[in-house]
User: Fold these one by one.
Assistant:
Number 1:
Amino acid sequence: MPTNWEAALREAGLRVTRPRLAVLDALEAEPHAEADDIVRRVEAALGQTSPQTVYGVLAALEASDLVRRIDLPGNAWRYETRVADNHHHLVCRSCGRVEDVDCVVGAAPCLTPGDTHGFTVEAADVVFSGLCPDCSPLPSDPHDQPTRKDTDD
Ligand SMILES: [Zn+2]
Ligand SMILES: [Zn+2]
């Protein structure tokens, strides 16, 4: 079900504007999008925009916790609307594909450092890097098909 972004913006105390809605729509359509991809999507949706507009919107949305910025090593900043949990990311070091990794605890911080050095830990952000199946030299396992169990009828 698509999120009611107008309500979410109002709840966050932000004015509902077409660029803001377009950015949120773009991120819902393409999670972990880079800012450049978001600019392209917003441009397509609104007919025109500027990178400055989109960056400004992203900064406002991030400050209001409506989007989360992900800083992956070797990548441009990426953004996503999945902010409510403390999930982590898998990144392919070859093609840059990014996948979410659900954390077991689901709430921040889901990991505790062996030594906190006196810090109050508020969040844990883990990046698993490696090769995705497409970039992996090993043939993918033919038995590794997704199983669907949601028979609902
Ligand atoms: Zn890859
Ligand atoms: Zn994510």
Number 2:
Amino acid sequence: MTIELENHIDPMLFPILEKVHDPEIPVLSIMDMGVVRFAQMINSVAQIKITPTYSGCPAMDVIGEDIVEAFAKENIEAKVSLVLSPAWTTDWITPRGRESLEEYGIAAPLEENADKEALLNNKRIVKCTNCGSVNTKLVSQFGSTACKALFKCEDCLEPFDYFKCLK
Ligand SMILES: [Zn+2]
């Protein structure tokens, strides 16, 4: 997947895209999120295609506007469009993105392909961002934003956010 994506992203545009961050998780660039599917200069216009992390996630509109703004600062016109298929999954978050998430105090899924069912059935797929224990419990499907769920660690008793933008 990663290799295929790199072919569609002009390396010259990479640094500009790196400056755009997820409005809900400021530590994560949209490249780390893995939402950029395509970025090429076509007839002097940067054509950017992004895949929403979560249907109805209001952050995506903001990301589109932020991309246009980031390119405008470089005097480049950008057009942003959405690609809905294949759907984004948390597997697309880069290893560096996962590290940033954990440092920021948001748990990334332990298992690749961790699905929503596993999350809702309280299977132990989420690691405490405070102590690293997997003895954690879903407290609320909705954390500080719609894209996060609230978890609590049963060992250190700390509550923490889980990034639930799953497939
Ligand atoms: Zn803990």
